[in-house]
Amino acid sequence: MTNKNLSETIEDFLVYQKSIRNLSDNTIESYKKNLIYLNDYVAQKYSLQNDKVLLENISLQDLRFCIGCLSKEKKSPASINQFIAAVRTFFAYCRKFEYIKSNPALELKTVKIPKRIPRYMTEEEVDNLCNEPTEKELLWLERDKALFEMMYSSGCRVSEIGEIKFSDLSSDYSSAIVLGKGSKQRRVFFSKEAQLSFKEYLLSKNAKFPALKNCEYIFVNQKGTKLSVRGIRYIVSRYSSFEGTNKPVSPHAFRHTFATTMLSNGADIRVVQEMLGHSSISTTQRYTHITKKKLIETYNLSHPHGEVPEVYEEQDKSEKN
Questions:
Q1: Catalytic: 95?
Q2: Residues 310-321: pLDDT tens digits?
Q3: Residue 199 falls in the annotated catalytic set
Q4: How many domains does the chain have?
């Protein structure tokens, strides 16, 4: 059993995950980012050069201290769990190929993620997000309106919408095949309004930027490069800073709003689960937020003695159960 160095093994691991396991680029990038963080941490801790960290010398204590550093840096529980998942997968790979005698990551426990009601938008906020800005703001309005409409009507993850190619679209732009988490394909659907916005975007693209006519990806910047996750976040943040939106909005809020809208209007949660690409229905339940008005309306219609008024004074928040 040779004592391999960590940095070289990380490179081998990433190649294996991409070529043999066929994992998505986003997953590979996440593994890479977290494992490089581990390598840098261990090198700094033991005053070593980054390419001199030996794999066999990494202990469970090193991993726990590294996680502690992430906590001190105020990383979110989700980010810390992402790091733990990457480390677990990496050391399982190392043990499988007998690069190490024992797996130091076996006892790592994920951190608890507090349950929060996801941020979602009202229909008015969605409309304002698309319609408030004007040409003087130097934004590509037709593209951005199409982007927002397609995210809102499909429930796509931000990483999925940016990866859609023209070859993935149906001929009438009513649906597309996307590659979700775990490299699972599913079909998503676009509303008539989204289809119309997309056609207007294509007309504007061909008129303003003729050189972009044959781009492979449907959403690109003015240089013809596909929109990255970071780029889409920037676009949404620019629009949400305008008057007409009550709170800062992230691209993921479109996904939450899609789920909330579907469920509030009677869609079966199993169908919504399929549309969102969730492997577990409990994940779908986390993404939903049914308004109090809808709950009261359903109660009054369904319960024989239901007489709760639509407008009522909220209970004191300090009241104990």
A1: no
A2: 544 444 333 333
A3: no
A4: 2
Q: What pLDDT sits at residue 305? A: 65
**Residue among 239, 233, 198 nearest 219 (CA):** 198
**CATH number assigned to the domain comprising residue 10:** 1.10.150
Q: Which CATH number characterizes residue 193's domain?
A: 1.10.443.10
Q: Are residues 243 and 140 in the same domain?
A: yes
Better-predicted residue by pLDDT, 43 or 241: 43
Does 247 reside within a domain? yes
Average pLDDT of the residues in 82-105: 96
Residues in the chain: 321
- On whether both 163 and 235 belong to a single domain, the answer is yes
Residue 278 is among the residues annotated as catalytic for this protein: yes
Q: Which two tokens stand for residue 233?
A: 């976040």
In 78-229, at which residue ranges do the beta strands (DSSP E only) sit? 175-179, 185-189
- Pick the catalytic residue: 252, 286, 289, 294? 252
Catalytic entry in 157, 173, 205, 239: 157
Q: Domain residues for 161?
A: 123-253
Q: Check: pTM over 0.90? Answer yes or no.
A: no
The tokens describing 200, both together, are 């207007």
Catalytic (active site) residue 157: yes
